[in-house]
Amino acid sequence: MTLDARCLVTGSAGHLGEALVRTLRAAGHDAVGLDLVPSPFTDVVGSIVDRDLVRQAIRGVRTVFHAATLHKPHVATHARQAFVDTNVSGTLNLLEESAAAGVSAFVFTSTTSVFGDALTPPPGAPAAWVTEDVAPVPKNIYGVTKAAAEDLCQLFHRNRKLPCVVLRTSRFFPEEDDDRAVRQSYDDANLKANELLFRRVDLEDVVSAHLAAAQRAAQVGFRKYIISATTPFLPGDLAELRRDAPSVVARRVPGYEAVYARRGWRMFPLIGRVYVNARAREELGWRPRHDFASVLQRIEAGEDPRSPLARVVGSKGYHWQTFAEGPFPVE
């Protein structure tokens, strides 16, 4: 991906889309944003379901960052057909026009939600060690359509030789958790710090993963990667994580307890899954900068635990309306 090559970013009004456009433009790239929602980072206002609009937006583009999607928070408010239209048909439009235009790299933002029920071990079993080799068992229309879009990417690489890299990102949204019990039990900053151990990633690292994927797409061809903060846990910790997570964290991140005690924070009593980013680090040369230990250091220094990019992008929400039961309704 050279500085003079044009990039298309779908979902440019969203968290990741805005962050990508900001970063690309700051580095001197010609980045075109596409979104349904007008924004300072959206050049083409419209839907990826509109094939003609996609064809026009992709002219002259060498790299596509496809972040536009209906998300998990939309499951309770949008019809299943809308998920198929946006997440499957919209992705198909982009892939077909990318192949026709000779795009050199297609980076698809997927989600760890595709793993679905595979993330929940049965009672008494160790925590799940989640690598790309875990077979997805989608549990809602969001997971089903993102998995289908991943398969479309693989198909277009196989049949049209389009370099496609799929990034399964863990949580990076700044909004409150959708689980009322969790929101009431933990301070929001405490909750997000805990999640960095096993299921969260900073927005800045998500962006750097996308850039690394674009750089390596030609040599990778097609590959799926988990994008999450680097966990301090090891496979030998998995059984104990289901019984006594605080003890495991104290062993792997010495000193965390004192930092938490000074703030009245608590660690989760148990952890049921751990996302593993080793493949992305090894094959893409991705170097995530933010993890549980680095956040503790920033907190101790009196700094904001979020990256500067995450702070400037801020919170966007997922709906135009507000809901009495939380930041968004649960199906």
From TrEMBL:
Highest taxon above the source species: Bacteria
Presence of keyword Ribosomal protein: no
Domain NAD-dependent epimerase/dehydratase: 8-219
Pfam families: Epimerase (PF01370)
Keyword Isomerase: yes
GO molecular function terms attached to this record: isomerase activity
SUPFAM superfamilies referenced in this protein's UniProt entry, alphabetically: NAD(P)-binding Rossmann-fold domains
UniProt keyword annotations, A-Z: Isomerase
PANTHER family: BIFUNCTIONAL POLYMYXIN RESISTANCE PROTEIN ARNA, BLL0593 PROTEIN
Identification of the protein by name: 3 beta-hydroxysteroid dehydrogenase/Delta 5-->4-isomerase
Species of provenance: Aquisphaera giovannonii
